[in-house]
Amino acid sequence: MEDEFSALVRSIMYQQLAGKAAAAIHGRLMALFDGGLTPLAVAEISLDKLRSAGLSGSKAASIKDLAAKVLDGTVPLGDEDGLSDDEIVARLSSVRGIGRWTAEMFLIFQLRRLDVWPVDDYGVRKGYARAYGLAELPAPKELAALGDRFRPYRTVAAWYCWRVVDTVLPSSS
Description:
Elements: H1 4-14, H2 19-31, H3 39-44, H4 47-52, H5 57-71, H6 85-93, H7 100-109, H8 122-131, H9 140-146, H10 154-166
């Protein structure tokens, strides 16, 4: 499993890019850090060098901002145990290029937190609607209230919502 910093860098890298393009750029980025991708190594490299790997100016600035916020303690990677999910989301969302959805995916897939309910995720909304026979997708605010019954295991419920979307059911005819 990737370390937390590398996972966040990967998340930034893959935003709004096709998988193959993102993978190629990510590979070139990683090649710049033969000593390993660390916040200090990113802080010490120039924006131009990051851009030479194919990163947009915005993505390069986001990765530099992440490194700076890890180094100054705003984003305490490796020391999240004492922080609530909401506090981690707030700290991660202070980083340029990281929003609530990315922070929630980090909580679920990297930190393995069990009570995350990503109400803005289209797959969760669609899966919930399909599982409960709703004609329309619930709005995020509505889904937040509907998810309360799954506490303290809302991540598990979200996973099932994603699976419902991926499951092909036999037709009833």
